[in-house]
Amino acid sequence: MRTFFLILIFVLVGALNLLCLYENEHWHFLVTFTQTKKLATASLLMIFAIAYSAAMDWKERKKPT
Amino acid sequence: MLRKMDSYSPYQLFVLIFLFLEGTAILMNVGFDLGRDAWLATLVCTFFGMFLVWWYISLIRHSKQKTIYDVFKLALGKVGGTLLGVLYITYFLYICARDMRDLTELIKNAVLPALPLEWTALCFMAIIIYVLWIGTQNFIHLFMLFGFAFAAILAIFFALVIADGNYDFHNLLPVLGDGPMSVLPSIFTQILEFPFGELIAFTVIIGTMFPMLPSKVSKMAMLSVLAAGLLLTLTVVVELVTFGPSIRERAMFPLVSAARNISIGNFLERIEMFIIFAILLTVVVKVCIFAYAAIQGVAWYSGKPFKSLIIPYVLLTTVISFYVSNNMSEHINAGLRFVPFFIHIPFQFIIPALLFILILIKSRWRKPNEQSAV
Lengths: 65, 374
What we know:
The structure holds two protein chains of two kinds. Chain A has two helices and no strands. Chain A is mainly alpha-helical. Chain A has one domain (2-58). In chain A, helix 1 runs antiparallel to helix 2. Chain A starts with a helix and ends with a helix. The model of chain A has no long low-confidence stretch (mean pLDDT 87). Chain B starts with 9 loop residues before the first helix and ends with a helix. Residues 1-5 of chain B have low confidence and may be disordered. At the A-B interface, helix 1 and helix 2 of A face helix 3, helix 4, helix 10, helix 11 and helix 12 of B.
């Protein structure tokens, strides 16, 4: 549930951000995604966030009721 | 008098709203296209802002709920309420990311130009996680300290501006030179949304701070908006009298530039570092409140503990802050032209207004039904 919600919110906020970027810069905003350092940091952060949420979900499922 | 169950004082709310409103508004070029009338527009918006905060509190009080997420459920049912709630979480996180980017751009442009933007964002992210992790009561106490530090720095700054004597009040004249109608569009499509309309985030916090929502809370919130608005107006006046409307219009961070201009006896210089520190404090408050509002919503809908959601959502916000725009000028352009009109107005005015009407209709409809049942 936690992981699902995180991914859902990520997709929604990402979509809103892309909409604003497109409205403001048209297709020029794609340049931002070619910066490798930024992309690597962002990917690592997102992977950590999803892994953290998945681990918390897994821990909760493991807990005896 | 407040009831005993409210463990927070209205003065804490005063400081919280005050710092939240100063937040990034004191940093950015508020009313940049209004020239010498920017201060007047800010002053007018202060009074609209007082009405806004009263209206947001009334929305929560009238529905007898704690947060805006409860109000969504009450007004639209479970499915509709959840859908709208998810949209609001998205909105809060997006604005939080934009504010985070404001600060990282400030650090990059004015303090540490060689440091990559990502490093500043990561350091700031760690601060936000820590502040949220220590719990609501503790971070509100922390923000009280921030309030004193901010007030002290700003008082010293204004004293130094006067001591420096490098100002010209003729920069404010003529007042409303292009007529009052030239100011109105910017008031309603720019300054009212940023920063005053952003008080919508308090619809998540205020009900949990004060479950009974006594009238003193509304009064204190309105007083806080008045104080914050007056300070914003004063900073705009200082910016205008220090370097005039044309330079202010082009300045990226006008308050920082105004502080940089101060030179007393060629000895007391580089005051802008203190101003940047004060701005850092207010941005921490603003980002924390938006993040809190969003995470509280996620906790409400997913039924998971608040603390377990802090790290993933602050990381997500940091990632979005990297990609909010390509550079600072585009960031400002989007923040002052596109975002207020297409994102702020629906989330700050249209949806709350429709909700308010819906709740009023429902409560009117319920009353005759209850009477007929008796």
